[in-house]
Design brief:
Layout lengths: L10 E4 L6 E3 L3 H9 L4 H9 L2 H7 L5 H11 L7 H9 L2 E3 L1 H10 L4 E6 L5 H8 L8 E4 H4 L6 H11 L6 E5 L2 H9 L3 E4 L3 H11 L12
Parallel strand pairs: 1-4, 1-6, 4-5, 6-7
Antiparallel strand pairs: 2-3
Helix pairs in contact: 1-5, 3-4
């Protein structure tokens, strides 16, 4: 009888934005959007989904060039960019509990980060947040010129971790990235809250509830 697939999991791969780093307080970004005569969603779109953002996500322009484009497109004075940055990111937090969970997984499973992100992400991870020790591999779209949900970046992640698709589980908040992972043979957990994601992941990883890696 074939062994159940979850017995084979050797690697746990995480998205960053919307999973490990999340907007917990929408007020600062909402205030910034209002000052620009925009909605929260319109401001998000201008920063994360513009042609400039797509170029930064593939490493074709620097993060400084992208922000210069954002300020120019929104008619925001460059000399007040610190005000913009403080309000835009003011409600975002790195989930230290999730990072601690990943650190506890690492002696047992390979751990990876797979993120559609800009060229400055590695600097943030290694210097500002200092969480690079939690991961065996960082696969960042801007560094490799590939992005989710396209297959090559998933394949590259598997190659770097040295595992097959069925041996990896991916945690992401975008359902299209989850569907892609499953289509390519991965296990996947759709992130909606830390509690739900960890409960689902602990079952997949066969971690008993009494010694769950979540919490202390």
């Amino acid at each position: 009888m074939a062994e159940p697939a979850h017995h084979l999991i050797k690697a746990v791969v995480w998205d960053l934005g919307g999973v490990l780093a999340r907007t917990l307080d929408r007020a600062p970004r909402t205030e910034l959007a209002r000052s620009l005569g925009m909605t929260y969603s319109e401001l998000d779109e201008a920063v994360f989904n513009s042609p400039s953002a797509r170029q930064a996500t593939l490493g074709k322009i620097s993060v400084e060039e992208h922000w210069a484009n954002v300020y120019r497109n929104l008619n925001w004075p460059v000399e007040q960019q610190d005000v913009f940055q403080k309000l835009f990111w003011g409600g975002d937090r790195l989930d230290q509990d999730l990072v601690a969970y990943i650190r506890r997984l690492k002696p047992v499973f390979k751990t990876g980060l797979l993120s559609n992100n800009w060229p400055n992400l590695r600097h943030l991870i290694e210097n500002r947040w200092q969480i690079n020790d939690a991961f065996d591999e960082l696969v960042i779209s801007a560094e490799v010129g590939l992005k989710k949900p396209e297959q090559p970046i998933y394949d590259l992640t598997l190659q770097r971790l040295g595992v097959r698709p069925e041996q990896a589980v991916f945690v992401d908040d975008f359902i299209e990235n989850i569907h892609a992972a499953q289509q390519f043979g991965w296990q996947a957990v759709h992130f909606r809250s830390p509690e739900k994601a960890l409960a689902e992941l602990n079952v997949l990883l066969e971690i008993p509830a009494e010694r769950s890696f979540s919490g202390e």
